[in-house]
Design brief:
The complex is a heterotrimer of chains A (335), B (391) and C (287). Chain A has 335 residues and is mostly helical. Chain A is built from 15 helices and 2 strands. Chain A has a domain at 50-260. Chain C has one domain (2-276): ABC transporter involved in vitamin B12 uptake, BtuC, CATH 1.10.3470. The relative contact order of chain C is 0.20. The chains are: A mainly alpha (335), B alpha/beta (391), C mainly alpha (287).
Amino acid sequence: MNMSKTVLPPMSHEAAPALIRGSAAARPPKAAALGLLAVLVGLPFLMNQAFSYHLAIFICINAIIVMSLSLLARAGQISLCHGALVGVGAYVSVACVKGLQWPFLAGVAAAMLAAACVAYLLGRIVLRLQGVYFVLITFAFSELVRLVLLEWVGLTGGANGITNIPAASIAGFVFSDKPAFYALAALVMLAVLAFFWFFYASPAGEAVDAVGENPALAESSGIGVRRTQLYAFTLASAFAGLGGALLAHYLRYISPESFNMHYSVALIIMMVVGGRKFLLGGLIGALVMTPLPELFRGAVETQDIFYGVALILMLHFMPQGLASVRLHRKQRKTP
Amino acid sequence: MNRMLKVLLPAALMLPGAVLAQDTLKIGALVTLSGAGAAWGQALLYGAELAADDVNAQGGLEVGGKKYKIEVIPYDDKYQSAEAVTAANRLVSDDKVKYIIGPMGSAPALAVQPLTEREKIIIMTLGFTNKALSPEKPYSFRPNLTTEETSYPIIAWLVERFNLKKVGGLFPNDESGQQIAGDLGKAYKQAGAELSSKEFFERQRVDMVPLLTRMLSAGIDAIELDGNSPATAGMIVRQARELGFTGPIVRNGGPATPEIVAVAGKAATEGMMVTSLQDPDNKEVAQYAQRYAEKYNKKMNGFSPAFYDGTHMLFKAMQNAGTVTDTTKVRDALEQLKDYHGIQGVLNWSGKERYGINHQVASPFFISEVKDGQEVTVARCTLEKCVDIKK
Amino acid sequence: MSNLLVQALVNGVIIGLLYLLMAVGFTLVFGVMRIVNFAHGQFYMVGAFATYVLMAHWEWPFLAAMLGAFVVTAAVGWVVEWVVLKPFRHDELNGMIATIGVAMILQSAALLVFGPDSQIMPQVAEGVFRLGSAIVPASRLYVAVCSVIILACLYVFLIHTRQGKALRAAVQDMEIAMAQGVRAKFMYPLGFSIGVGLAAIAGALMAPLFSVSPFIGSTPLLKAFIVVILGGLGSIPGAALASLLLGIIESVASSFISNSVAEILIFVLVMAILVVRPAGLLGKAEA
């Protein structure tokens, strides 16, 4: 079998996960890891700086979106339209909350549902393509979504975007200032993290991993590759929609340019840097990459060069992402 | 470890700044410095920097008995609203600025205004969208003319001069392109003609032939070039002439003539009518352009004089108000500036009819005809109408 | 109406040939290395700048400058393959992301050196030709003719030279080619440098038509993606068919309906074709 046709790099023996269902149940997380997480989440409150809250909110939202992208990656597909799906979630949420006057939570639910539906429909047509073909199609789809958002001025405001998006509010409490929204974003991010923690240990999660590792073997042991990937794509996009809704109600302004190819590529970079095979990879990738442009903001013209060089060095010397180094195999699923 | 460094590093860098805070006045420049918009972003940044240089050369800006050294802090928003918001957040909470030159794009401007208005930060934005100025945004100003201001008098003049009925235009598919197309459509209608053919294209497109083919077969008297970057405009002129279009070509909007002539050639551009934001005979602007070229090794972009003047107006307002920290007083002083003498000419605030608030600069502008590759002024314009220059 | 159609068709064929030139290097790189080269458009841009520099500063004639651009870019490509992409020769995804890094570096370097403004190059041909009622600007015809010549040269190289045959064998099946004695270590950099060299030639040819700036790379990348999706990854005849199709459809569609709608329709069409023929019009069926 021509291994070079798969999208993911071949796994070494020690990392090959168990294909026997149920053998890797969710172990309770180590106390140290939980402690570290608590410190990280609490840090912005300690610093109490408007800009730190701002960065932290973006880190949480990016973490949610990148975790969802990792889900699809673990199933063996890479999507270049994830940014567009985030955009779908953002615009649907705004249409419901600002346009139809729905409550915030209903808008979020609608956003997740819409993104999932779009992904499901797209996936049914397109998931028969493996590897690189799928990447290229998602690229085309991302451009299509962006053009539609630009063109459909009546619904989306066109290139001018939509201003005055109402702030998130739950049961009357309005999350209009930064610390409050950060609390919300952090909570949601932790909830999503917990969800994936249980998910990857469940039979569904194992099926996803099995399909990603070795599609032929998975198919022959009864796990339908297309079916599982469609499931992963749909679920991943639902979370992308969630991220989009949060983004829209934090920035309170959206425009089509925010969800273009540039953003999808940035998400992939975050996923790769963090490590797509590891649960915390999404968070780590977002943690490292989101503030990075801020460090470079002074050197305006050379920052992209640093960025590109850093990315290449990362890929050369740490292809499994930062999580492979920092987590000392604690969170990985290997027995 | 990584995170600690990220926290300590900016704090350490801010320390020397904190020591000098007494005598330094920081102005933020939130502009696009990468990507296709960089040319305009630089125009704003350099305009602000040159104005700061003027003042610093005299030992600083004297306000309320103290002298302040002006420091311009640039941030790149990459023409993305999220980046602009991040940069604005940083300028406001980390750098603690109260005055921002920029943003440049309409989307970034709309995105940062909730923050800047809430924190009472005075901004001078280029954003073409007519939503940028409003009575609910008392701290936002626009020191440059937009199509909304210039198109009506110019188009009235053009329609009369060439007896135009149907005009076609190609516009980039972004917020300024869409805004400009809308403004021009209304202006042509008011003048008795019609912007009958409007085509939108992706910003980086260079092949206009299919779009022009369609436009020409629909039948138009003139082609409008406004909204396009100079190189693209040149492309349009060249390709239109190659396709056999012999009618007049007009350009409302920013200066681009040298580039258009370079791309399309003298023959194709003969007789083209363009708007100039500055009088080609204006010596002060020519000197400014020279200074610009010497310091930055780049040709001056046409919007720069507006922001140079705008920054100076801001300084004057601070002096009149006697404070650099009370932005409400500075804002009031800025609004009250009348007949300010900038390098562009005499400037005033206007715009109440269109935007509900007088925060739009009114400066003189001109119509020129391109003859043998050079602009020759033929009319002088105010916001009301254009009058032929008797030579 | 029929005049418009004829003009649209002529426009379409010409632009289709330009797209083919843009795409052929991309499909070659994918065929040999299974890498989606995100830096393809930036190598196009490098070729355009190299031509501009050679002509404007060293006053080389156009064709010499174009060849110079090819050599320079191919050399850069060889180095990039060796230094950056070698670890990813069997790793499609990471290779693709590495090319994203390369693209960022190339564009930023160009921005640093040349600034964001467009540089104008003198035209290589003036005037227009008339084919019946349709008008073809001489400058475009020149480029179209050059495209055909370059593609003919490529054809000769691939079919009749030893290296070319080795390359084709590597595209068809690297393992078997290696078993036959084709040196993989040489094929990868060769394939990559020829592929990006072709992108550079496309950039060089189109520089006088469309001007030169650090941002001209994104359109060729997008067109190459579409051509290669439609035509089948790794298939040069497929790319030829797809480029002409794309050029004609784009041209006819934008001549008769609004441009923005036409652009949306193109994407919908691409996806529809892929539903029916997933490997592209002439692509090899993947496992």
